[in-house]
């Protein structure tokens, strides 16, 4: 049992034993370390002004990823290298990305600039020779700038991030990797403050489940992209926090002939890399899920456990026919994902129970899959409607349909009436689809909110099903979509 | 075809090259500090010992009500809490309004909108203050709340008297015209979403003086407000701002409250106090761009040339006047945009609602007026069946049609026509129009649209007395120049432009010029950094100060070398006599000092020529107009209402550019910000008056991927501003914000392609929902 966290900052190991459960990384930087180059813009992980880079060993190699420090808990960076804007020019010279910002006039008010530079620092370290402007804008979707209009920022990124990294961090990568290996241990971490308050980072699934079963009132945190806001916005008192970051069993993806068994703490970014190759629409929805900062931290297990009525991953998974495994103590159970969502804000998770795996069946030759994310803004927005469809076809006849929607009800939900109405429909006879499209009115009574009116959601839900059927029956997505064209998006760095 | 913005160096080649600092595309003065994280913003300043923090408390579910009780006892008992302040704690006036005295810093008796601050907690940490703030309970007797423009019109409730411009008898003329139309447009508001939220820190000094660090565009008004609230002399309050992390008008009047509260807490506790709003609080508690309802009627001939128009503007001002007078006046000033209305009645109503008081935002009412004008052009073009660009060109100001409805002559009408025609040619408007028609004929579900729209924006504060500025310039004995002026730096690059100007005027290199924070004790009685005018005004004040010092020095040197003063020149740190380099400016400065010649001067400037009589609604409110035009191509998805901007070409007139890099930055940034206003940025209030879009998770400003892939911004090859502005430049802060009206019009064009002849029912912002409604309505045969 370890009673402290350790991380690397500017080449040195920092050890902290006085970390409060809800202390954020940003507050540590600005209030404790008094390094004020990292800014707070929104305190909810949506503007990127607080972006810092975390270096981790992934398959033995040092990989830098951008995170929103405002909603990440300080304790969660245990075992990482933390890189902030101050570290980039600590030796007096400018980092290539910083230099490019100067050359391209890429800062105006400058408040968002450190966050942009840290995001691009991580892209710079990806060594992406064929980097496109689409790759850059995807990478930067989580960094808002209100002054420049972005063009000079994208130019600065294209100039620097296409070539192989050649900076102080690359030069000392071996040293950093050695330091990170030294830090890696298999100890459980427990930091207690004021009696009953603690933050724990168990290192195995067994110790996690034991701890969670003992402290059923504890809050489980994986990416903190949701729980972080409970802290910064709702000022919720979370005296007991169990973070899943160190549990290796939850980070693995097992690819089998039947499908994908995904650990609940696998980040969206990693999932995108694996599942995105399976089906382009999954890639596109995951590309547009949050931002790179959110996808780096956020996990599918968290997305499911917190029961968002929108998604974005549950509707995808439900359409794919996914199941989840849960574990309480030593007892494990498995259920179809749609059965987990009982009602708005109510999930079938018992106190202390942990989601451990998501089981995703492969699409086969009889399946046609389409998914669409509809939001006010293309990138980094919460969906107004998320629609995912899996059609099973015998020649051009639909013999089964799984139609899952987010944003249309209190939970991610299948459209049972429309599914039934589609049975036997023929792709070459568009008139036969109408009954199914109209049946959506019987499936959903959506709400009006700031993302869209009930009327818009109803009309858009129909439009998306119609669009999917158009495409499955042979229309090119070039004729039906203004973004996310199928088989065009290969080569995304994200 | 243009698909790329020229580099600043290429752009510079378009402007007149001279051996001056002004005209060079040097980086923003703080660029190096920005990229290294070493540029301190107000919250980054070293914190004084014993600093206390403030957090606001408000009634969580009240848009309008009578305060019965404010119970602070639970909050007082929380750990770390020093005190809780309410209206009763204020020694002076409880007001932070820019003019009308109607903005309490802490609600007193009545809550006027959801989010109005009732009390502030002062505690040893920001976290402690925020937690305690949740414990303050406010008991309220609800009062009926008016939430929308329509509600306020029904209740006939305004914050300011109605106002209008009139020429001729347009109501009769519209009726008699060969063609007529009437249409209504709702225009949404916009949150500033400056990345740095509202923040201020007040530090007590001796004698009860206060020094206030405030993220404000208007330090003099913060000074005035703090003195008023604390009942102290303005001379005992100083306000300082080195830089803001964006402002866009949102820190013109709305920074006052937070600085006043921090100052109040410092006054009460005797300790330094800081107030930084959380993003959600900031969005809930501060004003935004006004949303408008515009009802228009127009009479025109069968070619679409306007004969007469009436336009009725009703805006949501919120619960108080704030800057609504000037903002709504400016909507009228720009309701013509670039078009000649032979007869016109332009009316404005300033509606009172129980919502946050709306305020300045880049364009200051101009964008809403201009959007109405462009909406009218599209509606006319659809009605007469002509290309909207032709209708626009036919309605432009020109010879014998050059006087605005408010009596000002448009002197540069030929420039704007040339900009539009050049742009149309360069971006191949006509051939693309044909290509788009073919695309639309071939595509059932995706439709394209195209629009080219002009901008003519009046430059000067329409409150004439604000058009003045001051500067304080010191030359030191080492030849370095220390310079202060009344303008504030919010990212626009003002400090660098003024440093470039000062270097030229003083005859030193740019490296010898040092600009420091705006401070009210250096340059007093300043106007807000607003109305696009800060370079025009402060630049000229600096010119005047530098000129005075330089004339003293050249006269002194002329005596020393026994030549006429005209024979002495200072340039790039060197002094030349009859063309020969004789010594450094530093040597001259030292010699002049020894000869007891002052090396310091205060400069002053007041804009000439302008006069505006608001009573008669006649005069010359603007020194000149800034011009530009943009052509935008979009594609819409008729199944979902989504759109994508495919290509944008901009040609914009900045006169002679002082710094092409900074000017291009203003144009591109303004374009994207304006595009956000008209597309993705939607403010939603619920039926209880609560803002539901109070964070970036729900309020969507453009991201990098929303910027058109083909985006070209070029500077118009100008001969310079015909008016004697600094370096013959033109203001560039606000005008580009209105260029993306072309995006809105292109979306409208795409919808219109579904049923030519019908005017789409498309309000702003053109969200996917708004576009889908317009598409479905027009498919049902329902136009305006």
TrEMBL record, chain A:
The organism's superkingdom is given as Bacteria
Q: Where is the FAD-binding PCMH-type domain?
A: 191-365
Task: Tell me the InterPro entries matching this sequence.
Answer: 2Fe-2S-bd (IPR002888), 2Fe-2S-bd_dom_sf (IPR036884), 2Fe-2S_ferredoxin-like_sf (IPR036010), 2Fe-2S_ferredoxin-type (IPR001041), 2Fe2S_fd_BS (IPR006058), Ald_Oxase/xanthine_DH-like (IPR016208), Beta-grasp_dom_sf (IPR012675), CO_DH_flav_C (IPR005107)
Kindly state which keywords UniProt assigns to this record, in alphabetical order: FAD, Flavoprotein, Iron, Metal-binding, Oxidoreductase
Chain segments annotated as coiled-coil in the UniProt record: none
Per its UniProt record, what Pfam families does this chain match? Answer: CO_deh_flav_C, FAD_binding_5, Fer2, Fer2_2
Residues annotated as domain 2Fe-2S ferredoxin-type: 3-88
Q: Name one GO molecular function term.
A: xanthine dehydrogenase activity
Q: Is Endoplasmic reticulum a UniProt keyword of this protein? A: no
Give the matching CDD domains.
fer2 (cd00207)
Q: What is this protein called?
A: Xanthine dehydrogenase small subunit
Origin organism of this chain? Pseudovibrio exalbescens
From TrEMBL, chain B:
Report the cofactors.
[2Fe-2S] cluster; Mo-molybdopterin; FAD; Mo-molybdopterin cytosine dinucleotide
Ranges of biased composition (kind: Basic and acidic residues): 18-32
Which part of the chain is the Aldehyde oxidase/xanthine dehydrogenase a/b hammerhead domain?
36-144
Query: Short name of one Pfam family for this protein?
Result: MoCoBD_2
Keyword list (alphabetical) reads: 2Fe-2S, Iron, Iron-sulfur, Metal-binding, Molybdenum, Oxidoreductase
User: Which superkingdom is the protein from?
Assistant: Bacteria
Q: Which SUPFAM superfamilies match?
A: CO dehydrogenase molybdoprotein N-domain-like, Molybdenum cofactor-binding domain
- The keyword RNA-binding belongs to this UniProt entry's keyword annotation: no
Region Disordered, annotated ranges? 1-35
GO MF: 2 iron, 2 sulfur cluster binding; iron ion binding; molybdenum ion binding; oxidoreductase activity
Sorted alphabetically, which PANTHER family does this protein's record hold? ALDEHYDE OXIDASE 1-RELATED, XANTHINE DEHYDROGENASE
| Similarity comment | Belongs to the xanthine dehydrogenase family.
The name this protein goes by in its record: Xanthine dehydrogenase molybdopterin binding subunit
Q: Which organism is it from?
A: Pseudovibrio exalbescens
